[in-house]
Amino acid sequence: MADGTAAARRFLDAAIGLVERVRDEEADSVTAAGKLVADTVVDGGRLFAFGAGHSSLAAQDLVYRAGGLALMNLLAVPGAVGVDVVPATLGSALERVDGLATAVLDSSPLRAGDLLIVISLSGRNALPVEMARHARELGVKVIGVTSVAYATATTSRHSSGTFLKDHCDLVLDSKIGVGDAELTHDAVPAPFAPASTVVTSALLQAVMATAAADLADRGVQPPLLRSGNVDGGLDWNDHVFREYGDRIFYLR
Questions:
Q1: Can you give the residue ranges of the SIS domain (predicted)?
Q2: Span 143-175, pLDDT tens digits
């Protein structure tokens, strides 16, 4: 029990330390990202988020979320969203398929003037690299969320030899170490306790908070959702959906 309690504290301390690093070292980038989100809202653009595998969890955390921007839509790639595909290894294989991102984007509602957040811890696979690169070709602004450390410790799996960070208007570095495991144990042969989901979600919620405050400072009411589990929340959300329905795709 004592060892387990110590491991839990070590993990939580590690996660807190990473969040503090992101807070301190990515402050300027978070501010810039929040402004880019706010600019897109004011200019009539639409907001999208994409992540493959476990990176999709942070993307989904932004969509249809109480306290979040109603305009954030999930850009889904069949078989690559979360770990619901069987076998789970198929999702990992799809991340390495050239041409898939282009096909998805060309059949998606994204258009010039929109904003796409691409989340990939390693940033090395073909799917996120191509997603960012082709989105920019379409005139879409791209915010990449990745661990920049992977670009110096691994090789790209995209034919261009580049990483996600090389095809973004703005990059947010999650500071996650290569391998995404914070703990080791003498009796455990592999490192364990990943923190990327915790840190990436916190980083992106910081961006959304910045965007909401930025909009308010401009005299624009942020199109935020309220919890459906508080009195009046559903009526509030219905009003937001009616006002911004042409920029919301998860209701269709």
A1: 37-221
A2: 999 999 999 999 999 999 999 999 999 999 999
Q: In angstroms, rounded to a whole number, what is the distance separating the alpha carbons of residues 11 and 80?
A: 28
Total-model pTM: 0.95
φ/ψ (deg, to 5) at 141: -75, 145
Mapped onto helix, strand or coil, the DSSP state of residue 73 is strand
Give the angle subtended at the CA of 177 by the CAs of 85 and 120, to the nearest 5°: 40
Return the exposure string of 61-93: e unless at least 16 CB atoms fall within 10 Å of the residue's CB, then b. Answer: bbbbbeebbbbbbbbbbebbbbeebeeeeebee
> How many Cβ atoms are within 10 Å of 159's Cβ, its own excluded?
10
- Reduce the DSSP state of residue 145 to 3 states and report it: strand
What tokens appear for 15 in the block? 């996660």
Residues 6 or more apart in contact with residue 207 via CB below 8 angstroms: 30, 33, 34, 37, 143, 172
CB 123 within 8 A of CB 155: no
Per-residue pLDDT of 111-132, as tens digits, reads 999 999 999 999 999 999 999 9
The residues that bridge with 48 in the sheet, in sequence order, are 73, 116
